[in-house]
Write a structure and sequence with these properties.
Elements lengths: L1 E6 L4 E4 L2 E2 L4 H11 L4 E3 L1 H4 L10 E3 L3 H4 L5 E3 L14 E6 L8 E2 L8 E8 L7 E7 L1
Parallel strand pairs: 1-6, 1-7, 4-5, 4-6
Antiparallel strand pairs: 2-3, 2-8, 7-10, 9-10
Length: 135
């Protein structure tokens, strides 16, 4: 699977079971990266996407277990380490800020290769950085 995540500067994901932040330009960038392919995610994550995009989403709260090889997955939660072997690439959207967090990325980037970075302006964030990693 190809996994997309949003992280703060301390690799934080969630605070009190809620996303740290969201950005409409980031959602458009994510959909653009997905192209015509379905984007797997939880119902919680799908709730931030405008209704006109819902047909492009594969919504299932057990999506990480159900998505197969080469599937595109957007996760806002932790508990990723059990799926480490299935993850083919990581695309990290960095907020370039520090937010309160109590759930953090539980994958080590030690054995991943940073292939590219790209900065773009967000709607509510001055700069969002996309980092793409492969094994």
């Amino acid at each position: 699977m190809h996994l997309f995540l949003c992280l703060d500067d301390h690799n934080g994901l969630l605070f009190h079971q809620r996303r740290q932040s969201q950005d409409r330009f980031l959602r458009k960038a994510l959909l653009s990266l997905a192209g015509d392919r379905p984007l797997w995610m939880s119902a919680y994550s799908a709730g931030q996407f405008e209704p006109e995009y819902h047909a492009r989403l594969q919504v299932d709260d057990g999506f990480l277990s159900k998505a197969g090889p080469d599937a595109l997955c957007f996760s806002e939660a932790g508990g990723l380490s059990p799926f480490q072997e299935q993850i083919q690439s990581l695309s990290l959207f960095r907020w370039n800020r520090i937010y309160p967090a109590d759930v953090f990325l539980d994958l080590s980037l030690e054995n991943w290769i940073l292939r590219k970075t790209h900065d773009f302006p967000g709607f509510s964030h001055k700069k969002i950085t996309l980092e793409v990693y492969t094994k």
